[in-house]
Amino acid sequence: DWFNRLASGGLDQRWRRRAVKESRLTAGMRVLDVCTGTGDLALRCARHLTGSGLIAGADFNQAMLRGAQTKHGGRDGTIRWVCADAQALPFRSGSFDRVVIGFSTRNLSDLRAGVQEMVRLLKAGGRLVILETGSPSNPVVRAGYWVFLMTVARAIGGLLTGRLWPFTYFAQSVKGFLSPPQVVSLLTSCGTSTRYLPLSWGLASLYIAEKDGSQDHSAAD
After folding, report:
1. What's the pTM value of the predicted model, to 2 decimals?
2. Which of 94, 122, 136, 193 keeps 20 to 30 A from 142, CA to CA?
């Protein structure tokens, strides 16, 4: 969490607020936060729903989930923390009105399978909101961003944790991820209508994908 705050200059919180806003949550909705980590997005969604509906925060890392539970503190019963693989989630098809994921799609071992799984869980007309690191369109800004990731961001991570390899991976995964048009194409091919919003000059990317209402969600897994 400290790395996210420092490496983004606090912008990551603004980006999460925008993701929740674009989710267009309303009272009583069922929301799934995939790869919830320490629960930032799930907790923001819970505050927005003010005690109504249900939020599931799923992650396969037990230590991350313990961090999320500590943040949550059991303040209300709207959030359920679930240890699960993002590519094989233990929920019925069409179970959720909204699915959100923050800064984790590039970590999926099979991106298409992960996206298909998230779309499967949405009700017809439901919305998938993906917040991910960006690819600035301006070549000068983009080059500066890559240099920042490999130098300043790695140094911050190393100072905070004493380890460099996770932040080297972070920088490489950001640089090697799909371009925004490629992500939109993937989401569209998985049965959604998708739009892309660049945030902060493209330093972050927001994808809003609405599931095709004609799809059949009767299967129960």
Report:
1. 0.92
2. 193
